[in-house]
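Recap for those who missed Tuesday's class. We walked through two folding examples back to back. For each one, the amino acid string is listed first and its predicted structure tokens come directly after. Nothing is annotated here on purpose, so try labeling regions yourself before you check the end of the notes.
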Amino acid sequence: MREEDGPQAGSLVYADGPRTLREFVETTWAFGDQPFLIAGERSCSYGEFFAAASALACRLSERYGLRPGDRAVVAMRNRPEWQIAFWAAQLAGLVAVPLDAGWTEDEFTHALDDCGPRVLLVDGERLPLVAEWAGKAGARVIVFGGEDHRPARETRAGGPAEEAGRYAEGVERCEDLPAPDPFAAPPEVEIRPEDDATIFYTSGAGGRPKGAVATQLAQAGAARNPRFHAAASALGRGVIPGQGPVPVTLLTFPFFHVAAFAGVCAAMSAGGAVVLMREWDADEALRLIGEHRVTQYSGVPASALQLLAAAARTGDGLESLQALDTGGVAAPRDLVAQLTARCGERIEPRSGYGLTETGGAVLANLGAECRLRPGGVGRPTPSTEVRIAGPAGEALPDGEAGELWLRGQALVRGYWRDEEATAQAFTGGWFRTGDLAVVREGRVDVVGSGAGGTTGARVVRGE
């Protein structure tokens, strides 16, 4: 069906399923005691996750007085609390703003000035980089894992704290908050499909990062796309979608990246588990795959190649692994060949194409087709349209190269408070990727870049 109103007017949207991220996450409560987030010795079940997110959402809404549309920054390394914070913001109707945990204080300050959050949900390592801004702006701060950073002396906005070792006024430790009630509901707030849900920052073609703003409807579509990819993968292998054990994913993308958002949503759709790593190490990844019976690897191509090399060096057969899904940057063309040489056709390669502005991968190249065409980026999801555009924006026929334009439910509505950049990147609801591509029989090949469009941070997979 097509959406008639709102930012996605004229675009294809999924006919059923959630229309907001709150609707999407509320269904995960039914998974109860099934493991969701695994980090070292810690394991957080779906029930524990939803209770913690609901409790935090109530605090943000009822104690802090935040209202739908207020921005909530999330800045942490990959840890279970990141997901609790992000989804708490969604349950409260806030606009979640994931920030790069590796940024400098100057980069954080630029983004904070730009989006103007009322609350910062950060870990102890990020606190020193944002504390001064929060104090001057009067923003509240909740610190997760405060043991990562306990300065000898904190400062309030107006001067030194009274006691060494105490956090500044307006800063709370998550560990000091009341324990979540497993039977408590999230706050009662109205969240509409057309409301903003997230701002993901992307550097684009250069310069300062731009905030790509996605509505609730767009992110609900982005959360739905991985489910379609999983179903298409199953059908391609002759399996009925939804049958068999739940997926267990070793997710190595940083959570602030849209590729991680897609990976987490894929797990949440099926009640699957997500295994986290503090930092990448191929030998540790092999250990985690064996210990947790990981079924899917998800990360950048360089790490995937290192994983295969470590498996060859140690003789590890990667027996539990069923799929190797890479993204973030274009993969070497021989990655699929190396995977096949090492594991035959038992492990499915997955590739595709997407950007920050598309909410992750909206084109997918899976299984047998990926082995035959490892350089392609695949076919679009049902809610994504593809146009190969000529110099005047006209649609070119199959086999002719032109600029790749995309339109669909998952696309952002534009850039935060940047009408000029939005106008340059969007034409009549179509997003101009700036990449050169060719379509043949419904399959897309990216053949170059620099067609004159405005390109965001790619989530190209297996180009």
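Example two. Treat it independently of the first, because the proteins are unrelated.
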Amino acid sequence: MTGGRRVRVMVAKPGLDGHDRGARIIARAYRDAGFEVVYSGLHQSPEEIVEAAIQEDVDMIGLSSLAGAHRYLFPRVVELLKESGVDDIIVVGGGIIPEDDIPRMKTAGIREIFTPGTPLDQIVQWVRDHVTPREA
């Protein structure tokens, strides 16, 4: 927390993936760590995610995918943020992301990828170390 404002995180499920247990666990871990959390719900398009992230004034978007569409959906969110003139919202990803895809995701602007088995405290600490609240 800087200047009284807590880190605001959006947890989002892009695409048709209907499995959100992991996303809900992450959202709860963020909440328990003292972050403000916005959960966008299932079946969100990249456009809907970006629009909501801007409206909610979040500092970070955490994308979750278990269905394999991450190769398109995650970079599309970053692209839409740039097209909207927003370059200070950090985007991270998680879920079933093959190791071979992680460098591609990072090149596309995804700051970090958390795969299954990553300890929750490690994910929370990464956010504390890399995300600062934007000016209100």
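Answers for example two:
The CA atoms of residues 106 and 116 lie 18 Å apart.
The chain has a mean pLDDT of 93.
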